[in-house]
Amino acid sequence: MKFQQQYTQSQQQKQNQTQKLALTQQLQQSIQILHYSTEELRAFIENESLENPLIELVESVEPTDSNLNEYAKTYTHETADYLTQIPDTSVSLFESLIEQIHLNYRDTYLRTLVLFLVEYIDLNGFLTITLEEAAKQTGCDFVQMLDALTLIQQLEPAGVGARNLQESLMLQTERDDQSPALAYIILEESFDDLVARKWDRITKKFNITLKEVQEVFDYLQHLTPTPGAVFEDTKDLYIVPDLTVRNREGQLQLLSNKHSIPELRFQEQYFKQMEQSGDVEVAQYLKEKKQNFESLKKMVEQRGNTIYRVGQFIVNHQRDFFLKPERPIKPLILKEIAEALALHESTISRAVNGKYIATSFGVYELKHFFSSKITSKDGEENSTDEVKTWIQEMIQQENKQKPLSDQKIVEALVKQGVDISRRTVAKYREQLGIPGSSKRKRYD
Q: Structural domain tally of the chain?
């Protein structure tokens, strides 16, 4: 039996039409520019101007728009006291400690050890080397190194030089004349029991009441767990908002803050001067740089327009937030704005992250106005922010001797028609920074 195999080969030409988005360099740059915050955008343009002599970045002065002046006046009196407490961040914690050491301690061998230990103080103010290791590295004995640490712990801020949280709180308590009488000794001998809320052990050990332990615990909440944090950089406290919303007798008006948009100017005189050279290569160079300027200016303007359109949608959708004192947030997701403005969700995301809107009652990041929704049994939609507010209010009004458990909160919300799980309540409570019921119980 013979098997005959036949092979056929055919060639056909087919034409398939597909749609593909090619991310050109210009498109990628446009996307990145939208993502930039105001400060990042300015830095980017400054860098571009170094490479393109036809680009001039016009230095802006302080905001002159009357609405920003009005906003500033609103907060002048309220923030005056707070602003005076902001440290001079031109001096770091390390620099401050060095300055104090040279001012307070004589040039002795002990001061040399103090200066050695300061090198091992981290940004939070804690000592990151053991005294045994420090003594070994310097060749001194343990007692001398302990004396050096004692001198550091007498410097400002209170708590600096501590080796752990317990010691930091003890140092702060020791310096405070207003601290509860037993606060220091409880921290020293029963710190773990205090943190774990095993307060019955403390009452028996020191023969005091639960109310007195509660007073010590409340006092500690006003101390800082990281004494060096006061020297953290505060330069970002000042934010130039991208948008400003005005309330004129119930009518909301949205304005672009021109101060937040870098102004680009074309170096016309330099362009004409170079153009007269008659050199072909120079002419080509000028042509490319002029196109670069026009492209960059168009992208910056497009960024501003996109942020404004997104901001206008937010203001319209969250109208109650800007008009009502309780500042309610309606459910809003990226997809809703994307569909309404015929933009991609990623574009909306870039337009709201790191972009701010100023009001007469504060400055808010645009992404603050987004909240997923929870649908109640009757079909009504509530934002997660609303549910969090209800949870917060319930806990504020609870009996502190018998705080509400997460399950009790669930049952209360269900009665309001909100279908929610205990796990979700626990998640929202943790996001609000509220501890569990066992840790909220009070004894006063």
A: 3
Same-domain status, 39 and 107 = no
pTM reported for the whole predicted model: 0.54
DSSP for 324-343, written as a single string: STT-----B-HHHHHHHHT-
Q: CATH number, domain at 398?
A: 1.10.10.60
Q: What is the DSSP letter of 416?
A: T
CA distance to 1, 98, 114, per residue, from 222 (Å): 99, 27, 29
Last residue of a domain, one of 194, 214, 231: 231
Contact by Cβ (8 Å): 74, 360: yes
Residue-level pLDDT, tens digit, the chain, 444 residues: 444 444 444 455 555 555 544 456 777 778 888 888 888 888 888 888 888 888 888 765 544 444 444 433 333 333 333 333 344 445 789 999 999 999 999 999 999 999 999 999 999 999 999 999 999 999 999 999 999 999 999 999 999 999 999 999 999 999 999 999 999 999 999 999 999 999 999 999 999 999 999 999 999 999 999 999 878 644 445 678 899 999 988 899 999 887 777 788 888 888 888 878 878 888 898 889 889 989 988 999 999 999 999 999 999 999 999 999 888 888 888 999 999 999 999 999 999 988 999 998 889 999 889 887 665 555 566 678 778 888 888 898 889 889 989 898 988 888 888 888 888 888 888 888 888 888 888 887
The Cα 185–Cα 277 span in angstroms is 84
Residue-number span of the structural domain to which 276 is assigned: 24-76+235-371
| Same domain? 340 vs 275 | yes
352 with 382, same domain: the answer is: no
